[in-house]
Write a structure and sequence with these properties.
Radius of gyration: 21 Å
Largest sheet: none
Number of strands: 0
Oligomer: single chain
Distance between the termini: 55 Å
Helix content: 55-70%
Strand content: under 5%
Structural class: mainly alpha
Order of helices and strands: HH
Shape: elongated
Number of helices: 2
Amino acid sequence: MLNVAWSLMGGGDLTLHGWIALTLGVVGTVLLTWVLMALAFKSNREGWDDRVDNRLDPGREDD
């Protein structure tokens, strides 16, 4: 699959090390994205965002 995508983008020939680096980069990016989104959903579910003290936020309007 990566081979087809790489060829369609007009990429040149890759050595074995190039394919390993490309694969690790794609997998690492997907994994990092998944972990960060999981942390955002966990934080939202557990109410961590509601506990932040925003009194010093310059854009905050006082109620």
